Amino acid sequence: MRITFLGHAGFCVETPRVVLVCDPWLSEEGAFDGAWYQWPPNHHLAPWVRERLADPGRARFLYVSHEHRDHFDREFLATVPAGVTVIAPRFGRRALADWLARVGEVHVLGDRERLALPGGYVEMHVDDTVVERDSALLVELDGARFLDLNDCKLLDRVAEIRAGAGPIDAFSAQFSGATWHPTCYAYDRATYERISARKAAEKFASVIHAIEACRPRVFLPAAGPACFLDPALFHLNLEPVNIFPRARAFLDHLATSRPDLGVLAPELMPGDAYDTDAGRVVVLAEPRVDDRDFPEAVARYAAEHRDRILAVQRLTEGRDVEGVHAALGRVLAERVERYHAAAAVQAPLYLRLAEAEFAWRVDFRSRTVSEAAAVTDEAFTTMVVPAWQMDRVLTGAITWEDLALTFRLRIERRPDRYDPALHAFLLTETEDLPALGSPRMHAAERTVVRGPDGWYEIDRSCPHAGGDLAQGWLDEQGCLVCPRHRWTFDLAAGGRCTNATATIHAVRVPAGPDADRGVRSGPAAAAEPG
């Protein structure tokens, strides 16, 4: 098996009988309305990938993991040759699979379902909690195995996948952040850097725990970070501390903190290829990008794409701010009415267009939406969005989650505490709001884990997104860390969550027959979910 890195989260897996392309993001359109671009640039590989997908002598497959535009590149997918078989995850929301039917015959696979390929199979792993909607793919061909987690949060399932499949040759997972917190929040510089450093450290720790659980021959760092070429976002590329460390930073940390893992971990450039038979990178693409040249290189890249980025923003120039403001009020009223969990939101939301005088105040307890000239509540969340960008959401050009990932909004909250119910409201499509509910992958299960001062019986499922807490670890404060989103729980305080409004069952017990299932210790500090 040869695995060619296509840049960002993309891979091309090849054997003499099969071509499988995963998450190709290759077009020059960027993602999220030009907010994100591939780094290093990889557009030159698009013809090479199309050539592979046109090979009449092999079975040709295309896998798209989820709807995020840095994985679901509609512009490139529209150019894929005929005759390709598409592999898609089964989500409650069918938009991805329905669109991919334009590309070729679609095989929609549910969680843990397999599809036979010449010489092996693929096995789908799905994370669908409405708010989280992603998937990972296990590929076995001609006796070699590749686990492509991309940026799917199923880090707690890696040990289970390995136990079922056998030794993993190659493992890939996201090592960098990709979220609006703290990127879009109104923090002073010191607070911003403190939160960013802690979140980056937690991300590194989570991936290293997954590598330890997987025990692959090679770790292929992928799924980020992107670069930001919009003049309004360009500063994110050059910040000394943020949640977007590039591959070299993670690989250096892996080498110094866990040399005992003994895993090959190369820094990949688009076009590099790893051969599972040889056990090494056998193709080194040119040119190779050095982080020391990054500031100058990304500045040139931004200059080349400036007109393209600004053209997207001009698409809505003819729309008046008052019209967008009025439409936003109507949509917010519909959304809060359809949101069954509205009463769980802790404080009102003030959502305002950057160019508008008034905000819309959303009172979740009373399910009312009204105009407000100023914030009048002690507890609140404010969000300011450019009118052109909100218009793109309201007209269906991008989703609400896409809006968050444009990073073109500004958020402030008092108190500064994560509210899962508000987060779900802001990132979920209107038609999906009635389906929102807390998932429980192991809802009926409890397990015994070792805490900082003895053994505890706990809920096995994290109340956030159903992560398996039996696969968690203890941080420096002795709190249990969920492996998916790094929520932390103080076991000695009865399972109180330290960074969100949640709790789990946690009771001291004598060491029992299942005590050897206790969680591992981890070096990272507690995360601060956004």
Task: Give an account of the 3D structure.
By secondary structure, the protein is α+β, with helices and mostly antiparallel strands. The chain has three domains: 2-306, Ribonuclease Z/Hydroxyacylglutathione hydrolase-like (Metallo-beta-lactamase, Chain A, 4-Layer Sandwich), CATH 3.60.15; 321-433, 2-Layer Sandwich (Nonspecific Lipid-transfer Protein, Chain A); 446-521, Rieske Iron-sulfur Protein, CATH 2.102.10. 23% of the residues lie in helices and 24% in strands. It has eleven helices and 27 strands. The protein has helices at 46-53, 74-77, 95-100, 158-165, 189-214, 247-257, 294-313, 321-338, 387-394, 400-406, 420-427; strands at residues 2-7, 10-14, 18-22, 59-63, 85-89, 106-109, 114-117, 120-128, 133-141, 144-148, 170-174, 218-222, 273-275, 280-283, 349-353, 359-363, 368-372, 380-385, 410-414, 446-451, 454-459, 473-474, 480-481, 488-490, 496-497, 506-509, 520-521. It has an eight-stranded mixed beta sheet. A six-stranded mixed beta sheet has the order 7-8-9-10-11-12, with helices on one face. It has a five-stranded mixed beta sheet with strand order 17-16-15-18-19. Strand 2 and strand 3 form a beta hairpin. It is globular.
